[in-house]
Design brief:
Length: 361
């Protein structure tokens, strides 16, 4: 047996009519004073939904143009066909137009259809509400269907959310029926998704590389400060000749870096391979001393070994143009990291002090 068309009562819409007020808050029209329905909305299932032309035309410019079309008989009801979606979705759409709101239940049941209708009939507030509601309802199973709709309805926020969900769960999405349907019927969107995933992976790699580089420059900047600290004040086991270093001395704030440098300095002093240039650890120490000389602002008074000698040697012109350019870039990055570290250090110190005060309380 064929399913009979649903009959929607006029009272269902009257209950949703809100009082219309002016800027001063005075009521201009109440639900009781509303005119009789003069529009019939026809759905795909043959159902008829009564409505008011004044309300439909005020919320949708598309519906206003449809209602303004000339009719054969002047006193005949205006007919608006809304086809291609279920009857209940159309009724939910009309309810949203009347009440200017959409319930969670309606969004869960008819969210995709409401988004399509709000786009076709240009109801921006409802379209925005549907976009936010569908973002919350996104799953691996429905993400491809929603993504296809976002392309048709021009919803950038929802489109980005769908793309990110597909990118993060591509293996699971690839096994869904939606993806298989997409491969057959919409290869251009499939290519777009694959390009998005590739770009996302490339961005992630670039970001990881930048973070690693920044971490390296911060470590080098910290090493330069530790060198000055070791050869000026002395630390737990290494210090200048005029300062007595004792093992009972408390470690400095950057002891992890400082300890490694002290081990490297002791090796540098005692190593016998260094003379022939065959020790990698000594080469590393030599490069650190050279880097310190490049970032040091006061080589004449600096107590770090060879600081002034390296500075004078750099003043002599050389033919190593490419090497000098790379070295200057490294120096620039380390200086920038030192500045950023000095700016962020007071904030970290303040946060530590606040944490200490809270603990005491």
């Amino acid at each position: 047996m064929e399913k009979s068309p649903k009959v929607y009562a006029e009272e269902d819409l009257y209950a949703l009519l809100r009082p219309v007020t002016n800027k001063k808050g005075m009521t201009l029209r109440s639900s009781i004073e509303s005119p009789l329905c003069d529009v019939r909305i026809i759905t795909s299932g043959g159902s008829t939904i009564p409505a008011h032309s004044s309300i439909l035309g005020s919320v949708s410019t598309v519906l206003e143009k449809i209602l303004d079309r000339p009719r054969k008989h002047q006193y005949a009801d205006k007919i608006v066909p809304i086809l291609g979606v279920p009857c209940d979705s159309v009724f939910a759409f009309v309810r949203c137009l009347y009440s200017s709101r959409c319930t969670e239940e309606e969004m869960n049941k008819y969210g995709i259809h409401l988004l399509a209708l709000s786009h076709v009939y240009r109801v921006p507030k409802l379209k925005q509400r549907c976009s936010k509601g569908l973002i919350k309802e996104l799953t691996i199973e429905n993400v491809i269907d929603v993504l296809q709709l976002t392309k048709l309805c021009d919803v950038p926020d929802l489109y980005v959310k769908c793309m990110k969900l597909v990118s993060e769960n591509f293996k699971a999405v690839e096994a869904t029926e939606g993806w298989k349907f997409l491969q057959v019927h919409d290869p251009s969107l499939e290519l777009e998704i694959l390009q998005f995933i590739d770009e996302a992976e490339s961005r992630q790699k670039r970001m990881s590389k930048k973070i690693e580089e920044r971490s390296l420059y911060l470590e080098l900047s910290e090493a330069m400060e530790c060198l000055e600290h070791i050869f000026t004040e002395g630390c737990t086991s290494v210090g200048p000749c005029d300062v007595e270093v004792t093992k009972n001395k408390e470690p400095c704030k950057k002891f992890c870096t400082c300890q490694g440098l002290q081990v490297l300095i002791r090796h540098f002093v005692q190593c016998k391979k260094r003379v022939n240039g065959g020790c990698s650890r000594c080469k590393r120490m030599w490069q650190l001393l050279q880097l310190h000389s490049s970032v040091c602002d006061n080589s004449d008074l600096c107590r770090v070994p060879l600081c002034r000698d390296f500075k004078l040697r750099r003043e002599v012109p050389t033919k190593k143009g490419e090497h000098d350019a790379r070295w200057k870039l490294l120096v620039k990055k380390v200086v920038a990291a030192k500045v950023m570290s000095s700016l962020s250090w007071p904030k970290r110190e303040e946060a530590t002090n606040v944490g200490t005060v809270k603990t005491r309380r």
